[in-house]
Amino acid sequence: MRLALPFAVLVAALTACSATPTADTTPASPPPSPAAPSLAVSPTSGASVNAGQGLQGKLRFTQIARLDKPVALAVRAGDEALYIAEQGGRLHAVKGGATTQIIDLSAEVSKGNEQGLLGVAFHPSGRWLYLDWTDAEGDTHVTEWAFDGTKATGRRDVLTQEQPYANHNGGQLAFGPDGHLYIALGDGGSGGDPEGNGQDLGTWLGKILRIDPRGEPYKVPDDNPFAGRRGAEPEIWAYGLRNPWRFSFDRQTGDLWIGDVGQNAWEEVDHEPRGRGGNNYGWNAFEGDRPFDESVDIGKAVAPVITYPLGEGGNCSVIAGYVYRGTKIPGLRGHFLYGDFCAGWIRAAPADDPAKGVEVGKVEQLSSFGQDHDGELYALSLQGPVYRVDGP
């Protein structure tokens, strides 16, 4: 993810932010040679819906709060508050127009563009709170607190990951329909994945992990796809990712949707049917569905279900949202909402035909989406506003 720069500066720095790029910066790329790895299309699921007909440009975004660089939103079982993380290190509860500070890590987090407090999630029981953040050295922590709805106590690190560079930290946390904690980590940073982390099963970098955090310090589920495999980290759920800044689970189907930020040509969204772990999403052999480094031999990888060109129209970083399963916007049901940080557009795509997305609104410096207990959606802007997504 590319965050924290002023909007105009950020657009000008799209390629400069990735050191030593090795891919063509134009959208067009030659087709793979016969020896190049191939991409397998991941089928999507969900009820058939029209492609956003009647929605184009008609969603409203109602401001419900204003914070300092909000980047992540979560809800807690039995609790009406929205819990919102600020990149600068503070977690707030927003309820009934009031904002209450819950945790303050501002003296501990690193302050780089893609660093800070990046993710928040609650255990399904509501008893424990988890934050993903980078420390003064730039390393990632997933930290747990016991939480009673008012006070966070008993702080402990669940896991830590050394970061070789300051960018591509991932940061998303979410509990899946199986009750396990999923953790996004980027490829370690720089440009082009110089350490080859995306395809290396011996590191957490460039992966989504899956753990049970209620252990010493955590437990690895026995059915993780690489548990027991020699040379592979057992926590790994999915790999071949560059910077999976945001992902979400469809509350109806349990499917996983991953927004993976591109290098200098293509942004992508990946789709994973419920429970189908072990997928390779292609980085750094592929960027989007185009070859990036043909010297990387990976065999088959899972193709993205959405791609769009980086730089065109100001595009720079995909922001994955949610499949809408609420009730207040009937025309949006069954659609996956996603957007772009720099361009600011938000699109709705049928979950069973995600390439057919249409623009439904705009939020400047879109940093994240959120979902409440009823399946209603929210959009966060790095400029400060937190919006509720409303219908026409």
From TrEMBL:
Q: Tell me which UniProt keywords the record has, alphabetically.
A: Signal
Task: Identify the InterPro entries for this entry.
Answer: 6-blade_b-propeller_TolB-like, Glc/Sorbosone_DH, Quinoprot_gluc/sorb_DH_b-prop
Q: Report residue spans for region: Disordered.
A: 20-47
Biased-composition ranges for Low complexity? Answer: 36-45
* Domain Glucose/Sorbosone dehydrogenase per the UniProt entry, residue ranges: 67-380
Entries under Gene3D superfamilies matching the protein: TolB, C-terminal domain (2.120.10.30)
> Is the keyword Signal in the record?
yes
Signal peptide (residue range): 1-18
Q: What is this protein called?
A: PQQ-dependent sugar dehydrogenase
